[in-house]
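Open question from group meeting: does this chain pack into something compact, or does most of it stay loose? Before anyone orders reagents, we agreed to write out a predicted structure and look at it together. Recording both the input and the output here so the notebook holds the full record.
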Amino acid sequence: MRKLAFPLLLIAAAAIARLARSADPRRLDLGLELARPSFGHPLGCGDGGVDLLALASEALLRSLWLASVVALVALLIGTTLGGAAALAGGRLEVTLSRACDAVQAFPSFVLALGILAAVPHPTRVHVALVLSLTAWAPFARLALAEIRVVRGLAYVEAARALGGSRARVLFRHALPAALPTARAQLGTTAAALLVSDAALAFLGVGPSDGVALGALLDQGLGAIVRAPHVLLVGAGALCLGALALQALADEAR
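C-alpha cells returned:
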C-alpha cells in the first residue's frame, strides 16, 4: 500500500492546486505573458499570461482521468474478448490472435494522429475513442495466454460437465485467473495512454480547448530561451503523471 501514497498524493495535490487557483486555466493576461514564478503565480505564466499552476493542475487531472478510463475500458473489452476466444478455442481463438497481431503491429499513434487530424474540433471524447481502438489488444493477448492454461484444468472441466453455460464458466471460473496479470498491465497501459494523449496535443490534434499537457509542452518549447520554466512545468507534470500510473501498476503486481 505504500506505493499508492505517491499517486494519491499527486492527485490530491493537483486537485487542491486547481481549487486554490480559482482562475480559468484559459484566462489570458497579456501583461503577465511568460512571467517568471512569483508569489501571485507560483509556477509563473505561459503564453498570453495564462497561469501555469491552474493550467498544469487542470491538464494533469484531465489527462489522468482520460488515461485511467481508457485503460479500464480496454481491460474490460480485451480480457473478455481474449477469455471468450481462448475458452472457445478453434477458429475464434486463431482469429482473435491474428487480430491482436495486426493491431499491435500497426503504429497506433499514427492511426490516432490520422483520425484526429480529420476531426474539425476534437474533444477528449474523440481522443478517448481513438486511443481505445488499439488499447484493448495487449489485454486480449494476456487473456488468451492465461485462459489457454486454465481451460484444461480440472475445475474448469468440472464446471462445463455440470452444465454451466459458456458465459458462466468464462466469468465465474476462467477470467479470475487472468485478472491478476491484466491488473498489473493496467497501470503501464494507462501511463502509455497519458503520454500518447500529451503527444497528440503537442502536435495540435488534441482537445481544442488547449487545456492539455501536450499544449503546455508546445508553449514551453516555443519559449524555451526566454522562459524555460514553462517547459519545465509541462515536462514535470507529464513525468509525475506517468510515474503515478506506473506506481499503481507496481502495487497491482
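Observations to bring back to the group:
Residues 30 and 212 are 20 Å apart (CA to CA).
Residues 2-252 form a domain with the MetI-like fold fold (CATH 1.10.3720.10).
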